[in-house]
C-alpha cells in the first residue's frame, strides 16, 4: 500500500498526529520501535483532566486504540533508513521491510541517560524524576536527592531549589561541577557529596534514599536524575537532508512543524526537547493539520 503519511514513532506526539490524520480519513501507518520516554513514566501530573496523574503507558494504550478506531495502521519495528524516490518517501526497517508514503512525519523522540544503578527503574516516574518542568512540584518542601554528575547534576539541583530547600546532590560519576556552580549550590544550601551509589533504596516504587559504595546510607523522600547526555536516537532526518542543530534536534517551521525538506515534518521532543507531553500533543495536531492541507490537492 502507498500511504498518505508514515509516522515514525508511536509516542504521544506521533499518536496525536495519527488521530488527527485519521479523522481526515488519510491512509496512515505508524512505525513504532517501542521503548520511548513515555513508556517509562508512570505518572504525569501536569496534564489537563488528570489531577491524580496518568501513566505514559495508559496514554499510549488509549491513543493507539483511538487511532485504530479511525483506521490508522501500526507496525512494530525500528526504522533505520529513509530515502526519497520520485514523489515518495521509502522507509526501511531493521527487519528489511519497506514502506512508502507521500508524506513523512518524524516523532522519534529522545532518550534520557539513565545510569545502571539498581533500584532506579521501579521508582522512575513515581518518586524518581527527570524533568523539573513536569515534576518539580512533586518535591515541594520534600527532602530530595539529585543523583547526577558534573554540571548537569548541579544545574538540576539548582533548578529544583525553586520547590525545595532540602537538597543533596550526589556526584555519582567522575568530574565535579564547575567552581561557579558549586558556589551557587553553597549559597542555596545544597549539599554536594562525591560518591558512587551502590543502589537505590525503596519500598516498592517509593524512593527512600541511596546506599553508597562506602556503606553509607542517605535517606530522602524524592529524587531527581541529573546526568545530561539526553540523546536523539534516530538519523532519519539527516539521511533526508533535514537541517539539524548541534545536539541533533531537528529544526522545523514553528507554525507548520515542517522541516526544510518538503513534505517531511518533525514533532515532539526530537525538535524542541521540551519534555512536555502537552506540547507533544499540540505538535502532533499542528503538524497533522498542515500535512492534511498539503495532501488536499492530491485528493
From TrEMBL:
- Any idea which UniProt keywords this protein has? Flavoprotein, Oxidoreductase
CC cofactor:
FAD
- Keyword hit for Oxidoreductase: yes
Q: Which residues form the FAD/NAD(P)-binding domain?
A: 3-284
Keyword set includes Flavoprotein? yes
Task: State whether it acts alone or in a complex, and with which partners, per the record.
Answer: Homodimer.
Protein name, UniProt field = NAD(P)/FAD-dependent oxidoreductase
Per the UniProt entry, what species is this protein from, by scientific name? Answer: Cytobacillus gottheilii
